[in-house]
Amino acid sequence: MARKTRSPEVVEKIKDNIIGEAMKLILDVGFNNMSIRKLARRLGMSPTNIYYYYSSQDEIYLNIQIKGFKALQASLENASCSQKDPITALEKIIWAYLEFGFNNPDYYQIMLNSDTPRYLEYRGEKIEPIAFRAKQMAIDAIAVPLKIIKRICDQNLGVPKEDAGFRAYQIWITLHGMVTLNNRNILEELEEVPEILIKRMCEDLMLPFLQKPDPSKRGKTQ
Question: What share of the chain is helix, strand, coil (3-state, %, to 5)?
């Protein structure tokens, strides 16, 4: 009997359901202990039915990455798109990153913290194009603040052009650390009011952009 054709909306809903349950399974048992059979049991589907939507557990995992970084990029761009002042836009991006990380701990864990395969491990394999797309989505998301920082540099506001990349990494690494420590409940064990520490860290990240660059320090990362 021929399979009944499902609408694109229904297909996307099923794929999203598979992604959501796979994310929970990876967090529960680890990527190496995940299997399509285990996932099928959780979903109440047959393994064959899952293979109709995804070719392997690696493809499912990579689509978790793609969906997560796509959502992160949208959050960062939406936070800054209405801001004409690049300084304000950068500040909005910083808080949008934290909000995404705090509100989506499961996605964030798999996107950036879990012991899961990365692009280089898929080189030369059939699934490499999907892995490359996941990698590119990550780069595009993390590049959002860099674009704003370059605008700031073009207007000679606080940071010399040669430091744009360094400042972008500084912001990302700092925010990533705060999200990770917060989501693991470490900040609240160390600080009575972690919100105060987070606010001060964000303010400190903005300081280089609020002062005129020192010509004597051009070309030197501080």
Answer: 75, 0, 25
